[in-house]
Amino acid sequence: MSSSLRGGYNVRGWIIWAIATLFPIYQLAIQIGYGSLEKDISEDLKLSLLDSSLLSGSFLFTYALMQVPAGWLLDRLSPRWLLGISASLCGAAAYGFSQCNTLGSAILFRCLLGLFAAFGFPGAGLLARRWIAGSFFVLAMGLIDFLFGIGAVGGESGFALLLTDGVSWRTIMIGLAVAGFAIGLLCALIVRDRPPGMEDRSSRVEVIDALRVLLRNPTVLWALIFYGGMIGTAFGFGGLWDIRLQNAFGFDKIESVNLNSWIFVGLAVSAPLTGVLADRLTNRRPLLLAGAAGSLAGVAGLIFIPLIIPYWALVLNLVVSGLFLGTSVAIFGVACDAIPPRYAGTTIALVNGAGCLLGAILQVMPGFFIGAGDWHPLEAYQHVLSIYIAILFLSIVAAWKLGTPSSSATET
Length: 412
What we know:
The chain has helices at about 5, 10-45, 50-65, 65-75, 80-100, 105-115, 120-130, 135-165, 170-190, 205-215, 220-250, 255-280, 285-305, 310-325, 330-335, 345-370, 380-385, 385-400. It is mainly alpha-helical.
């Protein structure tokens, strides 16, 4: 492999990475954009608040459960064709969702969306590991999270704007179906599996063997807990419940959606900066600790103090919370440095899956605790959403256990 590739300056590799990264951007637009569409979908399908939280969380449940199988398939088979086919199937599922008239059919197609979208993030991460190796890997992962944030903002604010202009949620989903087919075609045409001369060790990867190696590795286990708390909060709180919370504080639907989008603006800005910083640190513990502690303080502030601070300070708090949550991208470098390179795709998928599974649980759980009905007082939301404070405390504990001087794993 050439020194330019090891240094991350391979132009072809960055192009392949960029095309693959369109898929996770698309995934976040579908996933987070549900918060903007939620009230219109609920009114159309006559859903309760609990029904709506189940529908929202169904995407993340199948997405999370499919992460390890997706990572294993990506390690063994062709990322080019897996990304092309799965993105196209996402488009088909988005069209099916646009035609739903019952809760059952909506959950089915949203589950399928999560199932097929599961290949996007680990696929882009694996291609980054192969094509943008060395000191630029965490930067590439940070840029994926940056574009994740752009997709989330586009999904929330963009969809809200379309709804305001009279575009129905069903038409928006049809547009997403077309986008899925287009991304699948681009992946099939442009993405390539590995650089010329890179050894193909895919036949050596077995899923049971991979899980045995990864789940016996303390660094990987603490990484699961850390990322689960951080991104679980981003997806659970930022992906659904903060909009309801802002409604309870007195903001209307559009204001609540726009306010919530600032979390993902902060996450988008933070992720690549974290990637640059993490690639240069030998001990990442201070970065991980600062991210987890700052996220806890920021989310606690969002839950309890918006009525006693000016509007600009509320926006600043949302952005800063996103900035701290965005530091979670550093965990992929920590985890991948601790395992043999042939397990990179499975490792990325496993860590990402832990975050998404907890995010799904944290989307649905408040719906069970808050009680029946579509209206609840502010105090009820504050009490129930305090669960995010508890989960971020676990991330602080995990960060304390992590962050030892990084080293490259040796091939075994």
